[in-house]
Amino acid sequence: MQPGPLQRRDSLTRTVVTLALPAVAENLLVTAVFFVDALFVGWLRDDVALAAVGLGSVVMFVANGFFEALGVSATALVARAWGEGDREGAARAGAQSLAVTFLLAAAMMALLLPLADDFLAVLGATAEVVEAGALYLRLILSTSLLSFPLMVANSIMRGAGDTRTPMWITLVMNGWNVAVAGILVFGLGPAPALGLAGVGWATGTARALGGILALAVLFGGRTRLRVMPAALWHWDRALLWRLVRLALPNLGETAISRLGYTLFMSMVTGLGTATLAAHQVALRVESFSFMPGWGLSVAAATLAGQSLGAGDPERAEASVRRTLALALGMAGAIGLLFALFGRSIVAIFGSTPEVLEPAGLAVRISAAEVPFLSAQMVLAGGMRGAGDTRTPMWVTLAGTAFLRLAVVYLFVEVLGWGLAGVWWGTAVDWAGRTALIWALFRRGRWKGVRV
Among candidates 304, 310, 364, which has minimal Cα distance to 339? Predict the structure, then answer.
């Protein structure tokens, strides 16, 4: 077999950038969906509604994590088969991944829809915030049978080296979300002003549209890899076991990180509704710093998986190292922007001074964690693409148990630093995780993992 463009040793930086740029753009657009939600609600100047969007997003973050874990496993299997030149095997891996995804999506929808209020109440919010957040959450969850498979479908495309198609799908989603939210939140023409409910309808329908487009592309063969719909009904036990074996550590990591995040958010919620709203504003701004790290982690995962599939572990490591260098450069520039202009950036949300003042401080503090966050994303992405899903899980466990929860509790509950303590504690957490995963990456055991 002649080596494909992703197996050649020349022009490594160009290959990384070619894969990463569409993924960065896709992440920008995904981030913009929830950014627009918070922006429009912020313009309503209603701290309860803004806090409700934030808590609803926490529950969606937890739920999405399980499908992200399946997506990571799908990327690893598809990339390894693609690197081996086994196009049929890659298509089978994609079909099995989607079949499991539809079953999990139905189960998640059945669990979360009737219990939305209970999940939000566990976070310690006031009755007003719980009621508003449950409405927002149920509207988004109503399209889950299409929106959750979107994440896995996009991961399948990326495993085959197509990072452009997910970007275009997300662009369409984002355009829909902005247009519909603008109409329904404030009212336009015959459309009534629905406020928070308008945001929920816009986001829910945008996610459904994305799912329809992603599945249509995969089933219609309009990307590198075609998945036949009939293949979803033919279970391949051996392949399914490989998928489950790879997914279990990812699911374990997701459960650990999301449980830790839920406990973490309960501490933030205890600081009051205005502080919770400020935290959500700062998160929306900081989420843009995830773009380089996340996009480049996609490139690292694809290149590592395909290089190992082609029997070239040296190129796999070189790809991850080159990707890491690019991520650190971009993250440093974003961190500097946050440190200098944090207060000015949050002003676009138009909320109350009680929200914007602490939000600006939080964004400035986030500058300290951005480089570590990007580095951890890239290193973990490369390992997962290689099939090593266990190492990131153990790093997440260590960071959650010994850094995130313990340090934030110390800074917030013991020292009384408030929202600043939340963000400084998070920075310590990401720095510790990065140091640990870098040490494990250098040992090189991830290059010998069998999938």
Answer: 364
